TrEMBL record:
The chain crosses the membrane at residues 7-30. Keywords: Membrane, Transmembrane, Transmembrane helix. The lineage of its organism: Bacteria, Pseudomonadati, Bacteroidota, Cytophagia, Cytophagales. This is SGNH hydrolase-type esterase domain-containing protein. It comes from the Bacteria.
């Protein structure tokens, strides 16, 4: 019996070593389509620059959290003109699970006075796997990352964690450069400027948004953290194209939900911005951001004791 247990132990150990080796080889030599269970996204959405900058800032006025709608929708330069230092901690396809991780990882050191949580209803039905891969690929690995990986319990995040560990601690002499994109420009403060003008928006089929239990739990945890820290916050739905927002058939449910958890503004109801103010159906271009951010700042004045005191 002892020999069997010993043999099983060595077999398991050898299997783990072989598996890790195969993950590393796949990440280094196989193109993306041939390594579908490994999502390594170095520098997507300038995440590396954003997280590196986040490590160095503290004591700011406003922290923005959310998906690409956040890092493409809140311009630090406009907030600075109004006397507020802002940092944008959005990330591509960020779901509430990843927002919770970023709060655990950065909130203590960034120490904001006020938080804008850009809430996009699709965050509730998003598995968050791609967003986790984006974060794992571009941030220094730590216990909070491992906790998120174990919580999601998905082969793709395990593999991405393994390959990121290899790149950070074994292949650490390799330098990566952020993409030199003609349309995107990284602005200090975590923001991505884009001046692209959207072609005419097409009709979009009706879409019903579901709510995943793990995302709802993460969202509630986020709000609890804000309240426990007595941190001022507001939930905001940033504007999308008219056709895009019309496609969601159960948005009223999410309006009711968000109102239950604090101050909330849905700019998809109060603003009908023209298509040329967007770079696609979801994201504002720079001209649109200029308009939206000034309207947002004026709107926040109506909420005493939040941002304006």
């Amino acid at each position: 019996m002892r020999k069997l247990i010993k043999d099983l132990f060595y077999f398991s150990l050898l299997s783990i070593v072989i598996y890790i080796t195969l993950v590393v080889i796949s990440g280094q030599f196989l193109p993306g389509p041939l390594s579908k269970n490994l999502i390594y996204k170095k520098s997507i959405g300038f995440a590396d620059l954003r997280f590196n900058e986040a490590d160095k800032i503290n004591n700011i006025d406003v922290l923005v959290l959310g998906s690409s709608l956040a890092y493409r929708g809140y311009d630090p330069r406009i907030f600075q003109e109004n006397g507020f230092k802002i940092f944008n901690l959005g990330s591509s396809s960020q779901s509430f699970v990843q927002t919770k991780f970023l709060i655990d990882n950065f909130l203590e050191t960034i120490n904001p006075k006020f938080v804008i949580l850009d809430v996009y209803p699709r965050q509730f039905e998003n598995s968050g796997i791609e967003s986790s891969a984006d974060i794992i690929s571009n941030i220094s690995l730590n216990s909070n990352i491992l906790k998120m990986v174990l919580q999601q319990n998905d082969l793709r995040t395990y593999n991405t964690f393994i390959f990121s560990f290899y790149n950070q601690y074994i292949r650490s002499n390799i330098e990566y450069k952020s993409p030199n994109l003609k349309t995107d420009l990284y602005i200090p403060g975590g923001y991505i400027e884009n001046i692209t003008v959207n072609e005419k928006s097409v009709n979009i089929k009706d879409d019903f948004i579901d709510v995943r239990a793990d995302q709802m739990k993460a969202f509630e945890s986020i709000i609890s953290i804000f309240k426990e820290r007595k941190l001022k916050y507001i939930l905001v739905q940033s504007p999308q194209t008219i056709n895009k927002k019309k496609s969601y058939v159960n948005l009223n449910y999410f309006d009711s939900l968000f109102f239950e958890y604090g101050n909330y503004i849905n700019f998809n109801k109060s603003l009908d911005l023209k298509d040329e103010l967007f770079l696609d159906d979801n994201h504002l271009n720079q001209q649109g951001v200029n308009i939206y951010n000034r309207i947002l700042l004026d709107s926040l004045k109506k909420y005493p004791n939040l941002l304006f005191e």
